């Protein structure tokens, strides 16, 4: 059985917030949760971006997809977003955060203050803002999943700010998991190159989403999970299913 043949969990009624869902990896996450029957809430920058994303998704963009225009990049903005979601949907079960971007071109000794603010401070603040706002509201059976790249553990010359920011996110997940204990489940998905609508990689973006669905549907304790190819995706899905049967 390949990863793409894996049976999808039933998440009917499950409310998942996907900040960064309009991105290339985020699209795969959104598709996987919609296929599982979840109520998928995706914040976007503008009405125009919302319309573009619906067009990209095509027929799968049904009544279970909820696109809202909202800036969640600050503490106040993220708190307002989560408050709106909880009030409008009656609660929040899971968050999957494929928030990010790529930066390259200068060594650490050459970076500018603008580079620092955009590629490190800005993205790290956005992730921290969403986790801080959402984690206390998650239902016990849900999960918080942060999506990072291998640059979190591997130095990338010329893209050092990305490596630093991703490493910070990985530690954010570990600290949040340690602080939450058994009250909340907090995961990181550490990805190699991903296949999206615009790039070829070792893991399909929808398979990243399927792993996030399996995490949200199950009871597996907090963990950091690597995804670097179809075989590893299949192994992870099998392991999650085995853990949930115990």
Protein described:
This protein is of the alpha/beta class and 246 residues long. The protein is 45% helix and 16% strand. The protein has a seven-stranded parallel beta sheet, with helices on both faces. Strand 4, helix 4 and strand 5 form a beta-alpha-beta unit. Helix 1 (24-35) crosses helix 6. The chain is globular, with a radius of gyration of 17 Å. The chain starts with 14 loop residues before the first strand and ends with a helix.
Overview features:
246 residues, two-stranded parallel sheet, disordered N terminus, alpha/beta, 7-stranded parallel β-sheet, 9 strands, 7 helices
Helix content: 40-55%
Stretches with pLDDT under 50, minimum 5 residues: 1-5
| Secondary structure category | alpha/beta
- Cα-to-Cα separation, first versus last residue: 22 Å
Strand content: 15-25%
Question: What topology does this entry show?
Answer:
Layout: E1 15-17, H1 24-35, E2 39-44, H2 47-57, E3 65-69, H3 75-89, E4 94-97, H4 113-134, E5 144-149, H5 160-180, E6 186-191, E7 194-195, E8 203-204, H6 205-217, E9 223-227, H7 230-245
Parallel strand pairs: 1-2, 1-4, 2-3, 4-5, 5-6, 6-9, 7-8
Helix pairs in contact: 1-6, 3-4, 4-5, 6-7
Can I get a quick summary?
This protein is an alpha/beta fold. Helix content is 45%, strand content 16%. β1, α1 and β2 (39-44) form a beta-alpha-beta unit.
